[in-house]
Design goal:
globular, alpha/beta, eight-stranded mixed beta sheet
C-alpha cells in the first residue's frame, strides 16, 4: 500500500513539466570529477545556484554497473530544479562491500564539501540508490556515514538485514548475495537494519518491486524505522520489475516518479 493517497500522486504528476521527455533532455554532458577512490558526474542546469541535490548510487549486485546507468533521472531532476550527482564506487571482487560503503561515504563527503561550486546546496542532499546501491545508501545512511543528508530514497533491495535474509532462505544466501556477503561474521555489520535506533534518521522513501520477499523486507524495514521515530514513505511497486523500478524513475506520467518527486520536494522544502 502506498502511504500517500493516489489522488495526491496524480496531482503531483499533473504539476510536472509538460512535454516532459523533450524538456528533460540534457543541454550539456555532466562534469566528471575525481573524489579519490573513483569518479562522479555532476549534472547541473544553466545558472544553478543553491539547488537541492540528488546523489545517486547505481546497482549491479555489488560487482557490475557504473555511474552512467542513470536513465531519465538527470534530465527529469534538472527540469524540476534539482542538481543530480551519480557516483562510481569500486566493484567486487577487487573491493568488498565494506570498502564500497566507505567509497560512498567519501563520495558524499566530497560532494558536500564541493557541490556549492556547481550550483548545489550542501545542506539539501538526498541520497538515492537502486539494488546494491540501495543497500549501500541504507547502510551508510543509517550508520551515520552521510552526516547532514536531508533524506534517503531506497529503491528495491533484499539486503536490509542479511542475517534475517539468510534465515528466510534456509540458513544460506542465494548466490548473488552469498558472493557479496561471503563472511557470516560480517553480516550484522553490513546490514542497514543493525543501525536503526542508534541515531536519528532523516526521512526515508522505500520502494519495492514485484518479488514477495522484497515487499516483506521493505515493510519490515519501514516498521522498524517508524518505531524509532523516522518519517517513512513506503511505495508499493508491485507493478514494477526489479529493473523497471529503477529505469522508470523520471518517465512522464509514471506513478513512482510522482511519488519520488513528492517526497523530494517535501524533504528539501
Amino acid at each position: 500500500m502506498i502511504d500517500r493517497r493516489h489522488f495526491v500522486l496524480v496531482s503531483v504528476a499533473a504539476l510536472l513539466p509538460t512535454g516532459a521527455q523533450t524538456a528533460w533532455r540534457l543541454r550539456r554532458p555532466p562534469q566528471t570529477l575525481d573524489y579519490g577512490p573513483a569518479k562522479l558526474d555532476v549534472y547541473a542546469r544553466d545558472g544553478a545556484k543553491g539547488d537541492p541535490v540528488v546523489l545517486f548510487i547505481h546497482g549491479g549486485a555489488w560487482r557490475l554497473g557504473n555511474r552512467n546507468n542513470v536513465n531519465a533521472k538527470p534530465g527529469f531532476l534538472l527540469a524540476n530544479g534539482f542538481l543530480f550527482v551519480s557516483i562510481d564506487y569500486r566493484m567486487l571482487p577487487k573491493a568488498d562491500v565494506a570498502t564500497q560503503a566507505s567509497d560512498v561515504e567519501k563520495a558524499y563527503a566530497y560532494v558536500r564539501a564541493n557541490i556549492a561550486k556547481y550550483g548545489g546546496d550542501p545542506d539539501r542532499i538526498v541520497v538515492m540508490g537502486h539494488s546494491a546501491g540501495c543497500h549501500l545508501a541504507a547502510l551508510t545512511g543509517f550508520r551515520g556515514g552521510l552526516p547532514g543528508a536531508a533524506g534517503l530514497v531506497l529503491d528495491d533491495t533484499e539486503a536490509y538485514d542479511i542475517e534475517a535474509l539468510a534465515k528466510a532462505q534456509g540458513g544460506t544466501l542465494r548466490p548473488i548475495y552469498a558472493q557479496a556477503f561471503s563472511d557470516p561474521s560480517q553480516w550484522r555489520a553490513l546490514s542497514p537494519a543493525t543501525y536503526i535506533g542508534k541515531d536519528k534518521q532523516p526521512p526515508v522513501f522505500i520502494a519495492y518491486s514485484n518479488a514477495p520477499i522484497r515487499a516483506a523486507v521493505a515493510r519490515d524495514l519501514a516498521d522498524r524505522l517508524r518505531a524509532g521515530g523516522t518519517k517513512v514513505t513506503l511505495f508499493d511497486g508491485s507493478a514494477y520489475s526489479h529493473m523497471a523500478i529503477n529505469r522508470r524513475v523520471g518517465e512522464d506520467g509514471d506513478a513512482l516518479t510522482a511519488a519520488v518527486m513528492a517526497f523530494l520536494k517535501a524533504t528539501v522544502a
